[in-house]
Amino acid sequence: MEYINGKCPQCNGNLQIDNSLDTVVCTHCESKIIVQDAIWMIEAEAAANAENYMAAYETYTKVFKSNPNHWLAQFRRGIYKEGKPDGSQPLFSNVLQAITDAQNTIKQLGLPDDVRTKANRYFAVTASEIAWGIFNLAKYYLDEELQGRPYQGINFVFENFKDVTEFCSEVIKLIDGYTDDESKMIRLNLQRVIVYSSALLCRAYVMQSYDLQISVVGYPLSWKEEYFDKFDQALYEVRKLDSKFEQSIFLDRLEPDNRYDQSERDKINKNLQDQALAKIKQKELEIQKKKYREEHPEEYKALVDKVKRLERAMGEKNKTLDELTNKTIYKLQHERSELGVFSGKRKKELDDEISEKQKEESLLRNGINELDNELQALRKELKKTG
What we know:
Blueprint: E1 3-7, E2 14-18, E3 23-25, E4 32-34, H1 35-49, H2 53-66, H3 71-79, H4 92-109, H5 113-146, H6 154-172, H7 181-202, E5 205-208, E6 214-217, H8 221-224, H9 228-241, H10 262-295, H11 297-337, H12 344-385
Antiparallel strand pairs: 1-2, 3-4, 5-6
Helix pairs in contact: 1-2, 2-3, 3-4, 4-5, 5-6, 5-7, 6-7, 7-9, 9-10, 11-12
């Protein structure tokens, strides 16, 4: 009896499998597992790790033909179809199709939500690794171009950065709404790829040809604009989790020409980026406010009503204060000022009355200040939610 490490084709749970048996039962979901399929899966993974991609594809295919419901084998064979997931050539369409096919199988099997969630995370992790591989390869080709050792041309490099950016944007959708730490880290890795690839894709490059002619190469502004939102949103999300991430990185939002020196170009682009990130932050705040209003309608209404009551109370108190200061007290002071030298008794009566009214005025002002402080605090809270 010998045990091997395997995974359940239904729930993807880790298992210890007795390879002397024909079938075993998953200890997690109690589904039936064909031992030979588990052995083939191990062989396929070993082939892939050894960069024998054709063997990996063929072995995953054997598993899938043996068990068409084996969504993990279906996904893995789709990755290795007609290419290599090591960055040697773009496989993005294959990967996305493999994910869709595996998801459809999971849906048809009626597997529980937690299995679907784990599968989507697994798909996203694998796709992230592929994206980083192709990004790094494209960056290597770019360095070769800039050092005068062209491979397939600068446009080939740009196309790779373009494909990486769009691929990562699609993969992120797999884990939209997932709030667990693992999904956050996966999303963070994908967004970092978007930031780096978009930044390199939109840059203007100073190129020198064999005859020493200098030129500025890059996509026109009208073409680059479609990547601004992807870059801005990804950078904003990454910095929410890592505030120190690439403080000096920014997208080139200008035409690729010689109208600006690099220092001026960088300054303009930084200002444009700061404005874009500020808009995203403001938009996020508005979404949060709307969500709060929808989820807490009674609390929001109570807050609005309380602000209105305090505003009315403030208006009434200010009106009372105005009448007390500018009418009552003023009238008493005016009357006293017109009394003659022989009106001492009346002056004393007026002085006492004025003093009482001024005490009343002071208390009223203090009450207004306290009310204003409470009102300002409520308005601040209301601003956060509405």
